[in-house]
Amino acid sequence: MQKKSFDKYYKPAEDTFFLADNIQNEKGHAALDIGTGSGYLANILSNNFELVVATDISLDALKKAHESVENCICCNSADALHCSFDLVVCNLPYLPSDQVADPTVDGLEEGLGITSGIIKSASNTVGKNGKLVFLTSSLANYQELIRRTESLGFSAKIVSKKKLFFEELILVECVKL
Ligand SMILES: C[S@@+](CC[C@H](N)C(=O)[O-])C[C@H]1O[C@@H](n2cnc3c(N)ncnc32)[C@H](O)[C@@H]1O
Predict the structure, then answer these.
(1) Is the pTM of this model over 0.90?
(2) 14-176, superfamily in CATH?
């Protein structure tokens, strides 16, 4: 994930494709893609899930996602949802930053300021035996993010890593206890 000139929505990039590769074989009834951007991950999920819901805080992103994803909701993380999903995925805005100049990537202090809140909200929508899968990076304090996720009642482990030129992508899988 790299800072670029501010765009209307996040175009699928290396991090998107890495997460996509790791969720493409997941199956179930209902899945949620938080911070869907273009809707790329929600589309992958729709191959194996009967119901796919996508959220984002950006209306521009949702306009793009809605070209191919039926259930798009504009809200913070999963705040508008009071139901549970078999799988919740999120490619987080994890870059450490002093302020949120670009909400597609800026994650405030240690890349935790935004992501912790997103995961807290997401945790309420993960059903019994459900899974939360999120992407973070060596640029963020990912150990602390994992600790905070565990404190919400999950068992969390790093299931895959990918080295890029400027960072290492870190995929975390969390199972509700
Ligand atoms: C790194 S982009 C990922 C986009 C897409 N999922 C992908 O993998 O290409 C992060 C996305 O999260 C959205 N976002 C940022 N903060 C959010 C929040 N609090 N609630 C929901 N979406 C948020 C951004 O608008 C952006 O679309």
Answers:
(1) yes
(2) Vaccinia Virus protein VP39 (3.40.50.150)
